[in-house]
From TrEMBL:
Keywords assigned: Aminotransferase, Transferase
The protein, known as: Aminotransferase
Its EC number(s): 2.6.1.-
Annotated ranges, domain Aminotransferase class I/classII large: 34-382
CDD domains: AAT_like
Organism: Anaerocolumna xylanovorans DSM 12503
Gene Ontology molecular function terms on file: pyridoxal phosphate binding; transaminase activity
PROSITE patterns: AA_TRANSFER_CLASS_1
NCBIfam families attached to this UniProt entry: PRK06836.1
Length: 397
């Protein structure tokens, strides 16, 4: 018999994943090319060639124990140092290897840091709409998720409500910019305001409030958009990075945490996060791919493909009559559903073989998420269905 807690988790298991399964079912009936699956953030762009070259060279030429052996729980020292140097070059920071812990993707990093920080009942604040797994990650360590309601005009963080909802039990605030599911990027002004609120509240309560910056989409921005590096604005920031999207390597499970020395209790946090990596059963992040990413720090995926998809989808949906904010980053469009009940809307989209994720999965009903990290032909094939769907709703009015 499984645990009561897991029974609940299984029941509430990710809607996104369920949609993905549904996509496979529909593909078996209608043929893969006639199903338009926008459910999962699985990058459609190939990893850079440098990744493949690095894999081949490392497994061919480097010493086996060096590549495949156990290591420090926090990861290979030279890999961590290279990442620190790379970050310093881009962001004018002053990190070194003892600020970096290699993680099993962003998901692994978030779990490590939450395990490190949370006492049962500690509050973790998130801004709706948010990546739905945050709820499970906080719950893994008996944390309590506190949700700030969305600002549906801008999808920027609602700082007034944040100020009201921070308490003496707040241990962490998670931000995710560029954002899944809205694609918005928080401006520098917003980050400064957010930092001010946190500074004020941690002084008031006399406890550190850690800002966890979940950044799997940092490099996925379109045009000249500036994505501030949060450790430079608020000293109790911990960054969770991932190569899942930036190098199109989601299955390889690789990322890192940045724990700056300025963060309160830095030494304890760093040591505890290394132990958390071990005792969560990760032991260490996968070894081969650590070595690979360290060689590919300047490599990029071709995001022009996502940009073309973004333009085509956004312009077409707007033309049909849908309403949504133009995303500046990531590869998602968050669209207002044509009826209040976003789940019912997504069910109806399925009749056109279009798979979307309802906004409730992100704590924001009345919207749906379209992951446009798909082939252009998927978007072209889906557009007539989106148009018909809009017309159907219009006819019923
Ligand atoms: N955080 C956000 C906002 C995400 O969208 C995702 C994955 O889609 C993750 C974390 C998990 O990323 P990873 O695959 O690196 O664990």
């Amino acid at each position: 018999m499984i645990s009561e807690k897991m029974s609940v988790m299984v029941k509430n298991s990710s809607i996104t994943r369920a949609m993905f399964e549904e996509g496979k079912r529909l593909a078996a009936i209608y043929g893969k090319e006639n199903v338009y699956d926008f459910s999962l953030g699985n990058p459609s762009v190939q990893p850079p060639v440098s990744v493949k070259e690095a894999v081949i060279d490392i497994v061919t030429n480097e010493e086996t124990t060096f590549v495949h052996g156990y290591m420090n729980n926090s990861g290979y020292e030279d890999v961590r140092e290279n990442i620190a140097v790379h970050l310093n070059k881009i962001h004018s920071t002053s990190f070194h290897k003892d600020n970096i812990i290699m993680t099993v993707g962003a998901a692994g990093g978030l779990n490590v840091i939450l395990k490190t920080l949370l006492n049962p009942g500690d509050e973790v604040v998130v801004f709706a709409p948010f990546f739905g797994e945050y709820r499970n990650y906080a719950d893994n360590y008996d944390g309590k998720l506190v949700v700030i309601s969305p600002d549906k005009e801008t999808f920027m963080p609602n700082l007034k409500e944040l100020e009201e909802k921070l308490t003496g039990n707040t241990k962490a605030v998670i931000v995710n910019t560029p954002n899944n599911p809205t694609g918005v990027v928080y401006s520098e002004e917003t980050i400064k305001e957010l930092s001010k609120v946190l500074e004020k509240k941690q002084q008031e309560f006399g406890n550190p409030i850690y800002l966890i910056s979940d950044e799997p989409y940092r490099e996925l921005v379109y045009g000249d958009v500036f994505v501030p590096y949060l450790t430079k604005y608020y000293k109790n920031t911990i960054v969770g990075y991932s190569y899942s999207k930036s190098l199109s390597l989601p299955g390889e499970r690789i990322g890192y945490l940045v724990i700056p020395k300025e963060a309160e209790d830095y030494e304890e946090i760093f040591a505890a996060a290394s132990v958390a990596t071990r005792i969560l059963g990760f032991v260490n992040a996968p070894s081969l791919i650590q070595r690979v990413v360290a060689r590919c720090l300047d490599s990029e995926v071709d995001i022009s493909v996502y940009n073309e998809n973004r333009e085509l989808l956004y312009n077409s949906l707007k033309e049909y009559g849908y309403s949504c904010a133009k995303p500046e980053g990531a590869f998602y469009l968050f669209v207002k559903t044509l009826e209040e009940d976003d789940k019912a809307f997504c069910e109806r989209a399925k009749k056109h073989n279009i798979l979307l994720v309802p906004g409730v999965a992100f704590g924001c009903a009345g919207y749906c998420r379209i992951a446009y990290c798909v082939s252009k032909s998927t978007i072209e094939g889906a557009l007539p269905g989106f148009k018909k769907l809009y017309q159907e709703y219009q006819e019923e009015r």
